[in-house]
C-alpha cells in the first residue's frame, strides 16, 4: 500500500513538472488572403519573440494600398496603430470597421475587418517595431509583412478543410470500433475469470 501511494505521488510530481514546463509556442502562420463580401476578415500578422522573458516596447502600424506594383508609386493609407498598450483606429475609409485581434504578449498583432466591401481588396502592410529594454543599451527590430487581400461574393471551398473533416470522421469511427473491441475483450476476460473462480469453488 505504501509503495502504491509513493508511485502515485511520484506520478503527480511528474505531471506537475510537465504542466509547468509546457509553455505556449509562437508559430508564424501566414494570413488568409480571401475575404467574403459582408463578412468579417482577420488579417493575421505574427511577430514571434525569440526570448519572451525580455521586455520590449512594441508599436504596430497597419497600412492599406489599393495595389502594390513596382512601376507605380505606393499610395499608403495609415488605417490602424497600436502604441503604448492602446489599440487605436485612424481616421479614414476603414474608420469604425477595424478591431484589434492580437494577443496580450503582442506576438500576434492581427486586426479584423468587419463588414468587408469590394473596396477592401488590396495590399495590407503590417509594421512591427520593437525596442528591447536592457540595462546598458536598447536594440530594436523592425518587421514588415504584406497581405494581398481579395474580396469574393462567396467563400471558395477549401479542399484541405474537406480532407480534414473526412479524416476526423474516419478517426472517430476507428476509435469507436476499437473501443467496442476492447470492451468485448474485457467482458470475455472477466467472464472467463468468473468461470474459473466458480470451478475452483466447486
Topology at a glance:
Blueprint: H1 2-21, E1 34-36, E2 41-43, E3 56-65, E4 77-83, E5 86-89, E6 98-100, E7 111-113, E8 122-132, E9 140-152, H2 159-201
Compact description:
The protein contains two helices and nine strands; from the N terminus they run αβββββββββα.
Q: What can you tell me about this protein's structure?
A:
This protein is an alpha+beta fold. The chain is elongated and about 95 Å long. Strand 8 and strand 9 (140-152) form a beta hairpin. The chain has a 6-stranded mixed sheet, with no helix packed on it. Strands 2-7-6 form a 3-stranded antiparallel sheet, with no helix packed on it. It has helices at 2-21, 159-201; strands at residues 34-36, 41-43, 56-65, 77-83, 86-89, 98-100, 111-113, 122-132, 140-152.
Secondary structure tally, helices: 2
Order of helices and strands: HEEEEEEEEEH
Bin the helical content: 25-40%
Strand order of the largest sheet: 1-9-8-3-4-5
Major sheet? 6 strands, mixed
Shape type: elongated
**Structural class, from helix and strand content?**
alpha+beta
Descriptive key words:
single chain, 202 residues, alpha+beta, six-stranded mixed sheet, three-stranded antiparallel sheet, disordered N terminus
Amino acid at each position: 500500500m505504501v509503495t502504491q501511494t509513493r508511485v502515485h505521488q511520484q506520478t503527480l510530481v511528474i505531471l506537475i513538472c510537465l504542466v509547468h514546463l509546457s509553455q505556449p509556442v509562437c508559430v508564424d502562420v501566414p494570413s488568409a488572403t480571401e475575404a467574403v463580401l459582408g463578412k468579417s476578415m482577420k488579417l493575421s500578422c505574427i511577430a514571434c519573440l525569440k526570448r519572451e522573458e525580455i521586455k520590449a516596447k512594441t508599436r504596430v502600424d497597419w497600412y492599406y494600398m489599393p495595389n502594390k506594383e513596382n512601376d507605380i508609386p505606393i499610395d499608403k493609407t495609415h488605417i490602424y496603430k497600436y502604441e503604448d498598450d492602446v489599440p487605436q483606429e485612424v481616421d479614414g475609409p476603414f474608420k469604425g470597421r477595424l478591431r484589434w485581434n492580437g494577443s496580450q504578449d503582442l506576438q500576434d498583432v492581427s486586426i479584423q475587418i468587419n463588414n468587408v466591401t469590394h473596396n477592401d481588396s488590396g495590399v495590407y502592410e503590417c509594421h512591427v517595431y520593437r525596442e528591447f529594454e536592457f540595462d546598458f543599451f536598447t536594440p530594436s527590430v523592425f518587421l514588415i509583412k504584406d497581405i494581398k487581400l481579395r474580396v469574393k461574393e462567396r467563400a471558395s471551398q477549401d479542399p484541405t478543410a474537406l480532407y480534414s473533416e473526412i479524416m476526423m470522421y474516419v478517426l472517430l469511427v476507428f476509435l469507436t470500433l476499437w473501443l467496442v473491441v476492447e470492451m468485448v475483450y474485457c467482458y470475455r476476460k472477466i467472464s472467463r475469470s468468473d468461470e474459473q473462480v466458480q470451478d475452483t469453488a466447486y
